[in-house]
Each structure stands twice: as structure tokens, then as C-alpha cells.
Specification:
Strand content of chain A: under 5%
Structural class of chain B: alpha+beta
Helix content of chain A: over 70%
Number of strands of chain B: 22
Largest interface: A-B, 25 and 21 residues
Helix content of chain B: 25-40%
Largest sheet of chain B: 5 strands, mixed
Largest sheet of chain A: none
Strand content of chain B: 15-25%
Shape of chain B: globular
Number of domains of chain A: 2
Oligomer: heterodimer
Chain lengths: ~325, ~475
Amino acid sequence: MLSRTADSLYWVSRYVERAEYLARILEATTRLSNLPSSYGGAASEWESCVKTAGCDELFGQHHQTANEANVHQFLCFSSENPSSIRNCIEIARANARAVRTALTYEMWDALNSAWLELKKYDGRKLTRDDYGRFIEFVKTLSLTFDGSAYRTMLRSDAYWFSRLGVYVERADNTARILDVKYHVLLPETERVGGSLDYFQWTTILREVSALTAYHWVYRESIKPWLVADLLIFNRQMPRSFASCYENISRFLDALGETYGRQGPSQRMARKTLSTLANRKMGDIYDNGLHEFITEFIDDNNRLGSTISEQYLV
Amino acid sequence: MAAFDEMSGFDGTTRDAYAKLEAWLKNTPPEEFATRRSQADVFFRRIGITFAVYGDEQSTERLIPFDIIPRVITGPEWSLLDRGLRQRVTALNMFLKDIYGPKECLRAGIIPEDLIYRNAGYCLQMINQPVPHDLYVHIAGIDIVRVDGDTFYVLEDNARTPSGVSYMLENREVMLRLFPELFSQHRVAPVENYPDALLATLRSLAPRTASRDPNVVLLTPGQFNSAFYEHSFLADKLGIELVEGSDLFVRDEVVYMRTTQGPKRVDVIYRRIDDDYIDPLAFRADSVLGVPGLIGAYKAGNVTLTNAVGTGVSDDKAVYSYMPEIVRFYTGEEPILKNVPTHRCREPDALKYVLDHLPELVVKEVNGSGGYGMLVGPHASKAQIETFRKKLKTEPEGFIAQPTLALSTCPTFVASGVAPRHVDLRPFVLTGSDGIRCVPGGLTRVALKDGSLVVNSSQGGGTKDTWVLDA
């Protein structure tokens, strides 16, 4: 297939995934900020939200302080923010349009309908309820788009490139949440009895829709190291590092097999996957959680560029 | 001036071919039509059929209005058109081969030399340059208008990159979905085989050096082009790659496309990019749409471009005026399809006549297209007429003039109900090394404004499904 087609498929998926991620962190933050401050609710949550979205610097250029209204506006619709949900959907749709023939009708329809729906929000003053509906709409888009891809695409290179986009983006998103909140996951921050951080931990789990999953996996109350373990090492958890890399590696191998050639991206993915398989939370705390996460983000970015050099240009 | 109506002729008597349609229009409740029209709209919007209009920033993606009342052509009418189109396209190909080769038509005095040599569409790089299979116009979209029960005129030949065929195909799909009962009452010739015919034509044009399974691609300027939807639609129907200039590169006079598995050779390029933009090394250096070195590969005979480079010369409206002579000269036959009588303003007598009769004539730029840069005398303001008078005096050779034709009308849904609106017809004629193919029908365009004669989608025209009835 054309390199440009593969590139667009990859980025369509990345942008849809990113839009959903932004919707999820906004949703979790709204919930946290609504708690009384004695339970850990705090205005600073909105700053942390912008940080988790990875656009705190840009946000700072346009706003002095972060609050519910301006963060929602900035992350959902702002034209000054290249990674706003609106821009994500628009870029995804533009990419999809450029390679429309490589998408199934259902995938195109999901994106195109969302793009048409997006126009209804233009130039309107939105209430809290409107934002709530918007967040739901974005989550539905990603479910529909992802489901369409899964259910309608031929299992060929087009599908694999599109899946790679999902998992490379998802790995990055999970890592960013951990990167911003890593301090609340350090063992020494645990306090005996009811902890302020409890709500921080559940927020993290909500951001990756893993709160219920946590209970099923660990069958105990929420402990920071277990939250970290779930999001880093647990292969059953669809947004964990390990699960993302299991998928990335699988799809890269499928490409390598079909094309009859392995390359640097296959090797990199396999290496990260084996690191994740062989390490335990204990070593990571010993060597520094923050360092581990930063290194993972860098490696993941490098993998993105390597995939690009190997196939997409 | 009364126009011939496709349904009711000049005198209001329903023509046989339209009898069942008329009954359908009469017997269907208006609400039903309203529902079906909005269904059609939703359908088009969702599959993404849009047409960007240049110079209109607000609506970069806009629907071309679709009218649900079909336009009907009888079997015998089509058979005449079909023969006429084949004859005309055959002559066009021979003409182009001649003017880029031996130039016999110039020596025979069929057409003035300067009309060719000083023509902006005449491509110097193509002189004495063989093209694969000696064919130039592989895909032609010949615009036809009708003025009475028997007379069809060719309005334009469109030998460069004619568009609109996706609407021909999609309009039919939508009609089949919306009105299956109508199709059961009429024997409508199918058009759905057009993509197959096109692919067969393109494959037949591969250079002789190509493999037995030639790689055909469609080259688009990209998604911001007004016809991008059509490009992606056709690539999909044909099962070929839709490429942009940056997807292709040339090495050792061979064209390759960049794929995830490395370079792959390209044999036939159905290009929807104008000559000027196709290769920055050969033509406009500022073009970012094209492929550097493409013309080199083309001249070396390693790739086929459809249509060939340099066909624009026959789209020139002054050259058009010589088409009857051109058809006679190359085919030895009388032209089956007529030309609209045309005054060439480059000729002093004609210019004088045109200047004296501006309010009743249609004046066109010889190299204009898409309904831009023309004057429709009867509908023009005094100021517009005076502007054209000045233009004509300064640069008479840049214009031709034609009588304002009473284009036939066809019943059409408008705000006030069903009313006659002017229509034209663009059939698509395919020429491969293995013969000519012409799918029965074409794109009917309709001027939605009352009395308007401009059917171009860029100027607010709409489209209809076109039914050729099996006799």
C-alpha cells in the first residue's frame, strides 16, 4: 500500500484515541474537582488536568489560572490548542478523507458523522450539561470508530497500521497520566487510615476506565503501588503499558511477516515488551518511578518515529 | 423564446417516453416527494459527495443539489448521440495526432495555422513526440444541449480532465434506492459498468514496455481540490491507488510510487491534474502538486498519462468552431452531431456582427471553462455588456460568440413546486487501444434558477439522473 495511506490510517487512529483520552481526563477531573476540599478536591486539579493533556505550556500562554470553564474550553474546542478535541476530530477526518478508499464505509461514516455533529457546538456558549453531553459524544465516537475498524476491516496491512496508531497513542496517554500523578503513587505518600490521596488514585483509574477492573484484579482496597502495577504491568488491562506493547508487537510482527522483512521497529517493540515482562514494581520503585515513566515515554516516541521511517515515508 | 421541454415538447403534449413519469408526478402526494428528497440529501451528505466551489470560503464542502425527477432519453435518440460521440472523439484523436505530428490539416487549410501555433493549449513539448497507442483523448466529457425534438448540439468537447462521472453513478444509485417502483416500469439502461469500462480502457493504454498486469493509478491534486470526492470514488470503484504528487517519484525515466514495501513501478496514470501543474521541471516550477521528472518518463515512453499532455488545444472554443471541418477531414463523413453556430471574434466581419448584437448573444472566452468568464447577453446588465464590449475590442481573438440557445427544459423540483428548468447532458466517451466505450447516459446538469442557462455546478447548477430507455 502507499506509504501515505498507511501514514494517514495510523494518524487517524492516533487522533481518535487522543480525543477520547482528553474526554476521559476531563470527565475524571470534573468529578474530582466537585469533591469537598477535605476529600482531596482542589482547584489545582484543573492545572493537573492540563498537564496530563500535555499542553500546560501552551495553556499558560493564553490563561493565567486554570479553572473548569477555561480548561474545558481549551481542551475541547480551542483553535489555539492544536490538540483540542475539536482539532483531533478535524485532523482525523481530514486524514480519513484523504485516504477514504482505505477505510471501510462504517469507519468513514463514524468519523464523518462526528465531524458534522461537531459543527452543532460551534460558536455556542456551552453549559455544564452541554460539556457533559459533548464528552459522552466523544467517547461514543471512539467506541464506534474503533468498533467499526475491528468489525469491518480486512485483516491486512491497512488494519495493522491503524491498530498501531491506537496502541502507540494509548501507551503515550497512559504514561502521561502516570507521569503527572506519579508522586501520589509513591509508597511513602501512603498514610494510615482514610487518605486524601484515595480520590487521586480513583481518579487515575477512572481516567483509563479501570476502576472496576482494579477490584476484579486485586480484590482489595486501592493501594498506590497496585494502581501503578495495573497500569504498567498488567497485560489484562487494555490501557496498560504491557497490553499496549503486546499489541504493538503483535501488529508489527504481522507486518513483518506479510512483507517478509523485519526491521528496527519490530526489534524496538520486542525489547520494550520483554523489559515490561521481566521487571516488577519493586525494582521500579528502587530505581525511581518517575525515571522509569520518562524513559518509557521517550522510548515510545522513538518507536513512533521508527515506524514512520520504516513504513510511512 | 419558448424552449423545448423534454417532457412536453413545444406544445404541451406529453412525449411518450415521459408518460409514466408524468403519471407518477401527478399521483404521488407532495409530502412523499418531500420525504424522498430529504432522504436523498441525507444519503449524499453522509457518503460525502461534496463539491468545493472556488472563491467561496464559507462552504468548502457543499452538496451539489440533486433533483429527483429523472431526465429521459429514448433509445433512438441515444443511438444517434452514441454514433455522433464516437465519430467526434475519433476525429479529435486524429486531429491531435496530426497537429503534434505531420500537421496535414494545416497544410490543407482546414484550420488557420496561428490558431494552433499561438494557442495557449498547444504544448510545444509534445511536437513530434509519440504517445502510447497514438491516442490523446482517452476520457472525454462531451457537453451536449438540445433545442428541439431532433436537434442536439455539441457545446464543448472537454478533452482535458472532464469531471462529473461520479454523479452519474451515484445519482443512479440513489434513484434505485428511492424509487424502485419507477425502475420496474421503465427499461432503463444501466450505467454501473462504467468503472469496469474505464479500467479496461486505462489498462489497454499501458506502454508496451509495461508488464502484462499494468499498475494503473489515479493522480489527484489532493483533498482540497473541488473534485476530490470524485477522485477517491473512482479510485475505489476501479480498485486502483489514489496517489498525490508526493507519492510518486521518477528514477531513470521510470515512475514509481512509494509504498510500505518500497518503490513500485507505475505504468498508467489517470491524472486529474492539469498539464501546467503535472511536472515542475517541465511546466510550472512553482507547482507542488506534480511529480518532478514525470514528463521525462512520459517522453521516454515508460508511462502513459491519460489524457495525454497537450489536449487542451482542442478545448479552445475557437478551435471548437472548426470541429465540423475537422470531423469531415479526418473521418470523411458528415458530422453526426452539430456544432452551435459560432462567431469567431478574431474575424473582423464576425466581430462587427457580435458587437452589434451583444444583448442577444452568449460571449465566451476561448480558453475559459466551468461557466466562468462568459456573458449571457439577454440576462446581462448594461454595465456587463459594456465591459465585454471593451474586452472584445481589446482582444477579439480571445472570444467567440454564439446565439443564445433555448436549451431544452426538464421538469424539476423547485421551491414553488415542479417547474421546467434548462438542462444539458455530459456523456463520457472512453477511448482505449482496443476501441471506444460509451456508457448509455451521462450527467444531466440543470440550471436551478428560473430562466438561467448556466448549468455549471460552480454556478449553482444541480444534477439529475439520466435515463436512456432501452427501445
